[in-house]
Each structure stands twice: as C-alpha cells, then as structure tokens.
Amino acid sequence: MLTTTDHGAFRMQVGPPFHFEEWPQTKGWLRFAEYSAYVRQITLPNMSDFDDVFEDMSRTRPAECSVIFPNLRVLRMDASFDKVNPYIVEPPLVDCAFFMVSSVRELRFAISSNDTMLTVMHRSVRHFFDSISQRMMNIRTFSMTIVQFNGFSPTFKELLVQTLACLKSLEHVYLPLRIIIGKVITSLSSLPQLQEIHSIYRGLSWESSSQSIASEFKPVLKDDESFTSLKTFSCCGCPSVINKYLLSNPMFPGMQISGIQIQVLTQRYRNGKLEPLHELMKAIAENCPNIEEFSVSESKRSDTSRDMVFSFSAIRPIFKCRYLTSLTIRFRSVLTWTAVDFMEFAASLPSARTLMLHFSHPLPGLLLAV
C-alpha cells in the first residue's frame, strides 16, 4: 500500500496482516507526501489485513498531511467482515476515511450482509456512507457488492437512498438486483448524468427474499426530468408492477433505453400469474422500441417440481424491437416450441448477434431446432 525507503519514510512488515515495523514519524510523513500525489489507484482486497496500519496512521499523521492521496482516482476495497474471523464486532469501514477524497471518480467496495441487515447501523457503516456523500461528490462510477447476502434492513435502504441522491455526477451504478427497487430507483432517477444501472451478478436471487421486493418496488418518478441520461437499466420485481411504475410510466424515458435487465419474481409473488413473459415482452416492445440488449431471468425457487410452460406466443411481442442485438432468457420452464417456431424466431430478429435460452427441458415428443 505504501512505498517505503530507508531515508525517513515508512517501513512495513510484509504480510498479511500488515503492520509498520516502527511508528511513522513526522519526517516520514512529509517525505511520503512528496510522492503520494502521484497515486491514482488503490486496491485493498481485504481491509482487515491493514487494521494495525490504519490505527498507526490515525495516531501519527501530522496536521499538514490531512489529505494523504490528493489525486486518487480509483478506490477499490473489500470492507466485509474478516473471512477468517467472522465474529468481528464492527467492520473496518471507518478506516476508509484516509482514501475518501473528492478526486475519486470510481468507487467499488464490498460489505458484509451483517452490515446491511442491522436495524441500528454500526457507527462505522453510517460514517462510511456519510463520507461518500459529503467527501466524494465527484464519483462517476459507484459499485456496491454484498458478501453472503441475506437481505437489507429499512435503515440500510434509507442510508443508501440518501447517499445516492447526493452523487449528482454519477454515470454508472452497480448494485445487487434485489435493492434496485422502490426508493432506490426514485433516488437514482434524480441524477442528471446517470447513464447505466447495472446489477452485481452473484447468481439469481432466491424466492425467500422476494416478499419484501414485491411489496416495496413501487418507485415514484416525479417529473419529466427523471432519468434524463439513462441508457441501460436493471431491476427486480413483478412484471405487472414494473410495467405500471416504470415501463408504461410517461415519466420513464423508454425511447432512449438501449439495454434492460429484469429479474422476475416467482409465481407466488406475481399475483398467481403462471406465465409472466408475454406481459413483459409486450410492455418493452411498446415503451422501449429502440432496445438493443434485453435479459430476463426468474428468482431461484426452492420448489423445482413445478415448471412454467413457456409458449412461443409469449415471446412474439419482442419481435417488434428491430434493433435487438442480444436476447437472454433464463427460466426454469418447459419449452413448447416447434421447429417452425424456431425458424420464425431466428427470422424475426435480423439484428441479433447473441441469443441465449436457458430452460429445464422440453415437453416429450416435441421437435426442437436451435
């Protein structure tokens, strides 16, 4: 993390875990300051490896070195709980303050699900997000990964919503699909330069987390200034709700959307509708006709014995999107397509370069051609 010499700068014991061989002195800090302005990128794969280093830096840093890396552009870090010791009382997020400066343009971090589930946030978690909104206002790329995801508390969601609303320069956002709902979408819609909302892909979300998504989706797009620059969008929910609150919403800029990724909730959470694709395909074709990439998947189900029957008529509406170059459908379904259907499918998407269909199995006796 730090470049060291034998002439008054720092010596660090090779780790992990890392620590200084002796406490940094003022002379070493001032010498390091001559070079730290050239640091553009910092990656911390496991922040707990640097606990002793951060503590010594806090104790010894002189006032004239208040900003250690004034020209830092990229900050990547894993601030989740220690992989070896999962019983750490509080995560090391407070130590990130050394690197949280206004020059940063790209922030990518991982936190523990233990942080996101708490009703009362750890002091360091709240301090971390407050520092993002107060000290890193020029971020262009924001990426948050949740390690060992179990869910989000309302307190954490509010903290994330407040933080995102302050980052007016954001262009690219990467979040777990299960939190791209409700107030988070509303918060993102107000960012004038936001171009892409991507999902952090760590496998499909499980059915057990779907209930809160179904009840909390409902974003509010307040005026015609919502998503003024958006091109790529991701979310998770029930097709009818996504259509009502987003795709068919006159405030949603469907004409400028070129990429969509949607994860559909299981039948239990979509008002009993067995086949959700026709409604979704129709809504996209009518409201996002210029779409180039479309991906749809279903939340994982604990009960794999009841497969959806996926008829060819369900996909026909998307054929109106003549600019579609990539179509991905991941469902545990029975595929009832004939060879004729596949021929029509191929002929109806003239611009397609990537077609991916992932199903469980076809009905016995059907003739299939890919």
In words, what does this structure look like?
It is a single chain. With 370 residues, this protein is α/β, with parallel strands linked by helices. The chain has 2 domains: 170 residues, no CATH class; 176 residues, Leucine-rich repeat, LRR (right-handed beta-alpha superhelix) (Alpha-Beta Horseshoe), CATH 3.80.10. It has 10 helices and 16 strands. A 6-stranded parallel beta sheet has the order 3-4-5-6-7-8. The N terminus and C terminus are likely disordered. This is F-box domain-containing protein.
CATH architecture of the largest domain: Alpha-Beta Horseshoe
Helical stretch tally: 10
Parts with pLDDT < 50 across at least 5 consecutive residues: 1-9, 82-89, 203-211, 361-370
Q: What about the largest sheet?
A: 6 strands, parallel
**How many domains make up the 3D coordinates?**
2
CATH class of the largest domain: Alpha Beta
**Termini gap:** 52 Å
Amount of beta strand:
15-25%
Q: How many individual β-strands? A: 16
Helix content: 25-40%
Helix/sheet category = alpha/beta
Order of helices and strands: EEHEHEEHHEHEHEHEHEHEEEEHEE
Adjacency order of strands in the biggest sheet: 3-4-5-6-7-8
CATH fold group of the largest domain: Leucine-rich repeat, LRR (right-handed beta-alpha superhelix)
Estimated radius of gyration: 24 Å
What does the average pLDDT come to?
Answer: 79
Shape: elongated
Protein name: F-box domain-containing protein
Organism: Hypsizygus marmoreus
